[in-house]
Amino acid sequence: MSGNILHVENMTMQFGGVIAVNNLSIDVNEGEIVALIGPNGAGKTTTFNCITGVYEPTNGCVTFCGSTIASNHPQGKMKKLYAGENKGLYKRVVSHTPDQITKLGIARTFQNIRLFKSMSVLENVLIAKHIRARQNIFTATFRLNYREERKARRECLALLDEQALLPMKDDLASSLPYGLQRRLEISRALATNPRLLLLDEPAAGMNPQETQELSEFIVQIKNKYNLTILLIEHHMDLVMQISDRIYVQDFGRLIAQGTPEEVQKNQHVIDAYLGVVEDA
Amino acid sequence: MSTKKKLIYTIAALAALFIILTLCEQLLPASSMLFIVLKKGAIYALVAVSMNLVNGFTGLFSLGQAGFMLIGAYTYAIFTIPLKEHAAVYQYFDGGIIQFTVPILVALVMAGLAAAIFAFLIGLPVLRLKSDYLAIATLGFAEIIRAFFQWDAFGPVTNASNLLRKFPTFDTVYFPFIVSGICIAVIVLLINSSYGRAFKAIRDDEIAAEAMGINLAKHKQMSFTISSFFAGIGGALLAMYQTTVQAGAFKSSMTYELLLIVVIGGLGSVSGSVLASFLFIAASEWWLRFLDTDTYIGAFKVPLLGSGFRMVVFSVIIMIVVLFYRQGIMGDKEFSFGAFGDIRRFFRKRFGRKEVTK
Amino acid sequence: MEFITSNLPYLLAGISVGGQYALIAIGYTMVYGILRLINFAHGDIFMVAGFLMVYLSATLPIYVSLPLVILITVLLGFVVERVAYKPLRTAPRMSIMISAIGVSYLLQNCAFYFTSGLAKQYPVIPGISSSVAIAGATTKLVTLVTPVLTIVLVVVLVLLIKYTKIGMAMRAVSRDFETSQLMGIKINSVISTTFIIGSLLAAVASILYFSNYSTVTPTSGAMPGLKAFVAAVFGGIGSIPGAVVGAFIIGICENIIKGLGLTTFSDAFTFALLIIILVAKPTGLFGEKFTDKV
Questions:
Q1: Which of A53, B8, B304, C171 has its CA 20 to 30 A from that of C59?
Q2: Looking at the keywords, is Transmembrane helix present (chain B) (predicted)?
Q3: With contacts defined as CB-CB under 8 Å, which chain B residues touch C219?
Q4: Where are the beta strands (DSSP E) in A73-159?
Q5: How many Å lie between the alpha carbon of A122 and the closest alpha carbon of chain B?
Q6: Structural domain spans, chain C
Q7: How many angstroms away from the CA of A17 is the closest CA of chain C?
Q8: Is B88 part of any domain?
Q9: How does pLDDT run across A111-169, given as a tens digit for each residue?
Q10: In angstroms, what CA-CA distances link B345 with A131, B341, B342, C280?
Q11: Within-domain flag for B304
Q12: Domain A1-105+195-280 CATH class label
């Protein structure tokens, strides 16, 4: 149950002179729900982008299920500009594109929902099956892959049924109400058969009632699909209720970590969120 | 509507099309403008659909179509000019160096393959570029291809800037219809397949598509290469239609024309592209033809009419479509027999008959 | 020395054409900077300016027709923007680019209609059409006038953009369309000004260019237009000095290639250069990088 699944080590992401993620180390164990919290602009989404291959970290390494998925040291222009730590530590350079990382078993959702707007709900989910099917462009065009296609459809319909999205399977994704769009985005991520699911502010824009439903939903899918979940969230009720452990990031750096109770009491966290009282 | 019913409708429609074409062939004089419209329209339909595959379905703004058509047209012509005509055609190049011919259908496939190979090579560097940069780079490549085909050093193969002619052509309307029809059918199958979905995903949101595991470079390359394959075949058909080939004819203005057809039909609609091709050709070659000739009503000369006025009116119409009917004729919808069903049901309701449920 | 005298005509022609491309390229680069639109019709506006001169000078004295050509061209640029681009401001970028292609198509077809597709002789303009000899090479005076005039106009333009209120507005709009609107900048007048400046320079370029090449046809705007656009991309789209440097490089290279006897490739070379720069450094020589936010 509790092997390490994601290991982020001394990861730094620097854009020009701005350090967005600073020497960050995170560990996620199998079967956990881990939350990454922090004030706006703390570098949480950038962390996600580095893990999923959208950005190449400037320094540090990321390991998923024991294999290195990203590793880098400052190169080129960054050699001079680099202002982070552990400069000489990572000699190896490994980088994967986002699609390769998805294939390895990490799925994600986006902060501002990114559905395929002109496609139907069912098609949105079917896209996830594209890479898993045994087919090539020739067999797909001439429908020689009909067995695979039928299987993909069956699986997707079952998934939509579970998520109560089946009645609108033929509607345009963009025509769904906001809450359902969120749910569809998660379903779509689930359809890639991930081991690790990264959720970027899944409860953004939801009211307390919807947030409560969402937290139950997250726990439910975690158990059902044997997932490990890493999530970014600002709704503290949700975070404190469902996460096993919490990492707190501020100005790119990790400022605290621990169980929800520990983090709540941590002075650094309180300062980061409420500000430090200056002497008058 | 059930698949079986759809199939029956499709077969019926194809049969009807065949009968209409046969009637035209039998009844109308060979010089009728309708034949020009049908032949050229069928060819343009194929090229427009192939362009729609890249621009409308994959969301890549490519303007290389004329270049790929040129490659197809030349490949077809070079390998089919009968050997006994070589001396006359390649008169400045000692009869050329390609001393064999292949059957027409083989040459058509070769035309497609040649265009596809070029597209693949061009795609390697340029498909990484974003929207308008991609547009201008593909346009540039089309121009480079044109220059190379006109180069004297390639004369023994391409006849440099001279015409290629005397290759086999078609004289019935069936040929372009059948070839285009098969090619478009394959494109439609592709678009509705798992790969077609992946292309549409890339068009809608590249970042999300990548997060779904779709390899952007590979899929863009596929769409671009396949589109060029069919553009190559379209180019070969155009060569057959025109009976001569010259690189000078495949200018960027041809690509612009095709792009306008695609837009008028609706980006992301195959049936729109087909419909728009026929309308475009019919309007520019036939219906507006009267605008080009000086007309007298009694002693009164109708003002404005004269050579070139047709194209002015035509481009004004296009501007109106572009500005006011941005979605084009079909938007991103497709023609379906279901639409007929809707109309029928509508009439049934109106006239108070009982709705028949299927 | 012999090398120089034999190649000097090509070099001179290169500098001259480069200057003319530069003037057109500025129109492209400014419009792109603000609207993110490749104004495909720009080359045709340049062509129309050429024909205007042909027709106006047939009836009017040159000192009247010259300013009139510039005035009408500016008006055309303004009208094209108002009619064909303004209604599409909120439309996807592809629509507005297709509208530009449509305008280009329309202008070419109109020109074809009015001229019956025949090439027209460009009038002789006193002062720039006469021949001079430099270091043993004979050339038209326009060859010498062009680079000087180009540099002067560019300096004026750069000063305008740097130090006037409208210039500041232009820079703001090219940075961030929406925010500058919120700051109370009148977007439409800024865009119109951009088109007016672009068309003005295109009109000047057409006078210089056609004095040199002496005939105008309905399609003679297409190639210089495309090349000027390539120059703009080469120099880094959105950057005026970049466009000018790019235009001179392209003009000179193109003429040297002609000098080497590879005339067929002079156009192809321009595009090859474009593709190389796009692949190696998509932002061009002086361009700035824009990144998408995930």
A1: B304
A2: yes
A3: 253
A4: 106-108
A5: 11
A6: 26-221
A7: 15
A8: yes
A9: 999 999 999 999 999 999 998 888 888 888 898 888 888 999 999 999 999 888 999 99
A10: 41, 6, 5, 59
A11: yes
A12: alpha beta
